[in-house]
Structure formats: C-alpha cells, structure tokens
Amino acid sequence: MSWKQIRKRQEAERLGPLRLYRDDLEAIAKTLDEFGDLEITVNGEVRCSDPGGFAELGNQLPERLESVVMEAAAGEAMVRVELGQGAKIEVIEPGLAARGAQARIKEICAPRVVRRGWRIFLYFLLFVVFALLSPLLKEQLSSSQWTVLFSVVLAIFAFFSLADIAIMEKNKLEDVILNVPRSERPPFIERLFADRGVSAFWTLVGGVIGYLANQIPGWG
After folding, report:
1. Total tally of structural domains belonging to the chain
2. Burial class of 63 by CB neighbour count within 10 A (0 to 12, 13 to 18, 19+)
3. What is the rounded CA–CA span in Å between residue 91 and residue 80?
4. What is the chain's pLDDT, residue by residue, as a tens digit (220 residues)?
5. Residue 67 near residue 42, CB atoms below 8 Å
6. What φ, ψ does residue 60 adopt, rounded to 5°?
7. How far is 191 from 31, CA to CA, in rounded Å?
8. What distance in Å separates the CA atoms of residue 99 and residue 121, rounded to the nearest whole number?
9. Cα–Cα–Cα angle for 110, 115, 116, nearest 5°?
10. Are 87 and 109 contacting, i.e. CB atoms less than 8 angstroms apart?
11. Phi, psi of 26 (to 5 degrees)
12. Of 82, 112, 142, at which residue does a domain stop?
C-alpha cells in the first residue's frame, strides 16, 4: 500500500508594499507568460491574457489601479502575483521553472518597495537647518518672540511628522499601481533632483543665512 499526496504544496511570500508602473506590470506579465498560460485580472472587473494589454487598458480604467492579479499555470505548477492590498507571490507545486519565475519577479519588484519614511527625514532635516539658524535668529528677536517662533516651528514639525506616521500606519500594506510608463510619472524625490530642487533649496537657505548674518553688527 502506498500513500498519495492529495494536497498541493503551496508557498506564499510578501513583496510589498510596492509602487509599480506599467513597465513593471508588463515585465511581471512577460515573466509569467514565459512560464505558462497567463491570465491577468484588473480591479476584479476586466481580464486578458496578453502581457502587453496594459497600454490598451489605459483607455478603459483610471491610471491608478486598485488591484491586479496575474497568474500562470504550467501543468500542476502555478505562479500567482497579487497586487493591491500588500503585494505577494504564491507558488503552487514549486519546481525549477516556477522557482525561476519567482526569482525574476522578486528581482523586478525589489527596487519598487515603498520607503515611506523619507518625508519624516526631510522634516527632520529642515528642523536641523532651523536649529543651525537659531543663534542668528536669537540676535534679531526678543526673548518672547524667539519663544513663540520656536514653539510654532516645533508644533509644525511635530504635526506633519505625526500626520505622516498616521498615514503610513493606515496605508502600510497598500500598493501604488500606476498604469503609466515610469518615465511619465517619476516619484517626487526623483522629480526634485531632476528639477534641481535641491540646489534651489540650499540656495534659499544660504541666502537666508547670509541675510541674517548681515543684520548682526560686525558681520556685514
């Protein structure tokens, strides 16, 4: 007498939260299409089997998609990718080909993991700049004015930091799925560098420091 396995082996792994563009969606779909028979379901309402179908979909649905499920089967094996409420990949009856598709998809998604803490770091950086300017500001303001200014700046810093933390906690697993090419919608931090925003910011800070320094007797 021999035992027969009736329950399929299944593995699941979290990938996100992710910020994905059409380029990424097409790359994942092509990987799955090479593995087996592809099926794509978007927002639970439209379905296709073409890896290049996302461009056509742009005429039917908003550019930000709520959910995307892509799966491909090859015999008993299946690879399934779910995007929306926390990206994850599932592999059923994993074999060599399924492992290869899984590794490639993880490679595509790795650079797209959302790092939600950079805005808090930016607020902290601005507060540090304010702290560095504080000796110059104290020279120009009375004690009561300085206390009010410092309290207001600290309150603003705390408000935006706590608000961002609350938003991150609420949306910590939510993926951002944009059905547009990445070149048309780069992240804010990349636009900032591309538009020379960093240089403009530090030019402004330098100008403020120079102005305040000139107001102090013996400096100008």
Report:
1. 2
2. middle
3. 6
4. 676 776 778 889 999 789 999 999 999 999 999 999 999 999 988 999 999 899 888 778 888 999 999 999 999 999 999 999 889 999 999 999 999 999 999 999 999 988 766 666 676 777 777 777 777 767 777 777 777 777 777 777 777 767 666 665 555 568 889 999 988 766 655 555 544 555 555 565 556 555 555 544 444 4
5. yes
6. -110, -35
7. 30
8. 37
9. 150
10. yes
11. -65, -40
12. 112
Amino acid at 139: E
Instruction: Write the CATH number for 87.
Output: 3.30.1340
- H-run or E-run covering 42: strand 37-42
Q: Domain of 206?
A: 186-220
Return the structure tokens found at 57: 């979909």
Six token digits for residue 87 = 């990206």
Give the C-alpha separation, 89 to 179, whole Å.
Answer: 20
- What pTM, to 2 d.p., does this model score? 0.66
CB 28 within 8 A of CB 105: yes
Instruction: Indicate the helix (H) or strand (E) that contains 31.
Output: helix 22-35
- What's the CA gap between 179 and 50, in Å, rounded? 15
Q: Which residues pair with 46 in a beta bridge?
A: 42
Q: Cα–Cα distance between 14 and 36 in angstroms, integer?
A: 22
Q: Are residues 195 and 108 in the same domain?
A: no
Please list the alpha-helical segments (H only) found in 142-196.
143-170, 188-194
Q: Please, what is the Cα angle at 79 between 78 and 81, to 5 degrees?
A: 145
Residue 45 · residue 62 · CB < 8 Å = no
How many other C-beta atoms are found inside a 10 Å radius of the C-beta of residue 134? 15
d(CA 186, CA 199): 19
